[in-house]
């Protein structure tokens, strides 16, 4: 079974609007971490935001926020006020327990339209 | 200065060649990783090193041979590769290997490998 699922292969958003990228996960470990990475066409993976399974509040980092719904096992990324430079692949990832592997989803390609 | 560097950025090699990919991190991290990213597939973890010791080998074929001489350098030695090994190979480093934001991974720009 897929541990991390990103159901949106591609998304379009108008510049300055907000966009939500979906991510659902599957784990029976009570301790886990959820990560979002951005991969521009240059190839480098850029860490955006992190949410721990025991964190009470949703994580926020500038224009990025993580909509963490533990019961639904979802960790959607919200990007506010989209910019042209946000066009990239976005990957959701999960690490289970201590020393666990980082498992990535298939990714969502976001295109920001001017 | 970029935290994690990789060389070369692009590599074309024949199936009988031997080549090496190099990764260097300037972040003072203790763990380093190799990932493979094929088209239309999620990133696949290949190897993990923690304090120079290999802690994970994700059933990688022996034609890929990692080497970690110290916590700052990681190599991936390649020999007798197959065309299906063509992919983007990403190196990453982290403070450690546990759960938590402290252990987020920082990635290099990758090496685009083409096997002919």
SSE layout and pairings?
The complex is a heterodimer of chains A (114) and B (116).
Chain A: E1 4-5, E2 10-14, E3 19-21, E4 24-25, E5 32-39, E6 46-52, E7 60-61, E8 64-69, E9 74-79, E10 88-96, E11 102-104, E12 108-113
Parallel strand pairs in A: 2-12
Antiparallel strand pairs in A: 1-4, 3-9, 5-6, 5-10, 7-8, 8-9, 10-11, 10-12
Chain B: E1 4-7, E2 10-13, E3 18-25, E4 31-37, E5 44-50, E6 53-57, E7 64-70, E8 73-79, E9 87-94, E10 106-107, E11 111-115
Parallel strand pairs in B: 2-11
Antiparallel strand pairs in B: 1-3, 3-8, 4-5, 4-9, 5-6, 7-8, 9-10, 9-11
Based on the model shown, name its key terms.
heterodimer; A: 114 residues; mainly beta; six-stranded mixed sheet; four-stranded antiparallel sheet; 12 strands; 0% helix; globular; B: 116 residues; seven-stranded mixed sheet; 11 strands
Strand content of chain B: over 45%
Number of helices of chain A: 0
This entry's quaternary arrangement is heterodimer
User: What shape does the CA trace of chain A take?
Assistant: globular
Helix coverage percent of residues of chain B? under 10%
How many whole angstroms does the radius of gyration of chain B measure?
13 Å
Alpha-beta classification of chain B? mainly beta
What does the main sheet of chain B amount to? 7 strands, mixed
